[in-house]
TrEMBL record:
Residues 1-102 form the HTH arsR-type domain. This is HTH-type transcriptional repressor AseR. InterPro entries: ArsR-like_HTH (IPR011991), ArsR_HTH (IPR018334), HTH_ArsR_DNA-bd_dom (IPR001845), HTH_MetalResp_TranReg (IPR051081), WH-like_DNA-bd_sf (IPR036388), WH_DNA-bd_sf (IPR036390). Keywords: DNA-binding, Transcription, Transcription regulation. It comes from Aedoeadaptatus ivorii. GO terms for molecular function: DNA binding; DNA-binding transcription factor activity. The keyword Protein biosynthesis does not apply.
Length: 115
């Protein structure tokens, strides 16, 4: 994985590492929403919501469009798909196990030798 792409994944993980930001993402699953619609569902102030939206936006997770003084947000489906593909790769990998001539097969029953 290219270093830029790795850094993108780090930023996404950081952005999703907050309960309020996860709640915002869940709210946006149903489609575009104005910040004024999202705010009542969270126990935070408007400036705090703006802060969270900025973090999600910088990570590429949401798109923002302005209409007058209102901001409307949507999930960036392309970035979500890329993140999902990354997680699928991790899930398919043999995390924590490297082929080694010193491996006794105690942790994996020697499964890697069958490859």
């Amino acid at each position: 994985m290219r270093e830029k792409k790795q850094q993108d994944m780090v930023e996404i993980c950081k952005a999703l590492g907050d309960l309020n930001r996860l709640k915002i993402m869940q709210y946006l699953i149903d489609g575009e929403a104005c910040a004024c619609d999202i705010l009542p569902d969270l126990d935070i102030t408007q400036p705090t919501l703006s802060h969270h939206m900025k973090i999600l936006s910088r990570a590429g997770l949401i798109d923002d469009r302005k209409e007058g003084k209102w901001h409307f947000y949507t999930i960036n489906a392309e970035v979500i798909r890329e993140f999902q593909q990354f997680l699928a790769q991790v899930a398919r990998s043999k995390v924590g196990h490297r082929k080694s001539s010193r491996c006794l097969g105690l942790c994996c029953g020697g499964a890697w030798k069958a490859e």
